[in-house]
């Protein structure tokens, strides 16, 4: 898909290729420029390079999880203020509390939301 000039950048951090591609297509249809990462380390690198307007962060990732990403993000002033929604199939109150205390705007359980509802939630934060 052709990137639109001035389109808001969203970083999608998702290790499941099928889900990542589905969300990419949905966000691009809404006019966003999507970049993706499959690990917490990769997400830090992409966020520092691209400075996205928003980050949609899976919590369960290979190597290091989304909590690691949130901790690293918080420590780096270049990316600390980028809004993040954590989303996961891991419905654990302690994990949710950790994500929110580290600055996530919301913690969504993937199975409780349609992909379109997730996109709508993100759009609330990206003006």
Automatic annotation (TrEMBL):
Top-level taxon in the UniProt lineage: Bacteria
Protein's UniProt keywords contain Phosphoprotein: yes
Residues covered by the Response regulatory domain: 9-125
Record-linked SMART domains: REC (SM00448)
InterPro entries found in the cross-reference section: Bact_response_regulator, CheY-like_superfamily, Sig_transdc_resp-reg_receiver
4-aspartylphosphate: residues bearing it: 58
GO biological process: one example: phosphorelay signal transduction system
Pfam families (UniProt xref): Response_reg (PF00072)
Alphabetical UniProt keywords: Phosphoprotein
PROSITE patterns the UniProt entry points to: RESPONSE_REGULATORY
Name of protein: Response regulatory domain-containing protein
């Amino acid at each position: 898909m052709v990137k639109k000039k001035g389109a808001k950048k969203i970083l999608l951090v998702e290790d499941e290729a099928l889900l990542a591609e589905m969300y990419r297509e949905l966000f691009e249809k809404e006019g966003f420029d999507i970049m993706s990462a499959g690990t917490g380390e990769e997400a830090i690198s992409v966020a520092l390079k691209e400075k996205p307007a928003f980050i949609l962060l899976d919590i369960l990732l290979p190597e290091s999880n989304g909590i690691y990403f949130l901790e690293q993000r918080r420590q780096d002033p270049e990316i600390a203020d980028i809004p993040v929604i954590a989303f996961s199939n891991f419905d654990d109150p302690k994990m949710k509390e950790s994500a929110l205390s580290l600055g996530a705007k919301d913690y969504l359980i993937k199975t409780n939301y349609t992909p379109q509802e997730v996109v709508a939630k993100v759009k609330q934060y990206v003006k």
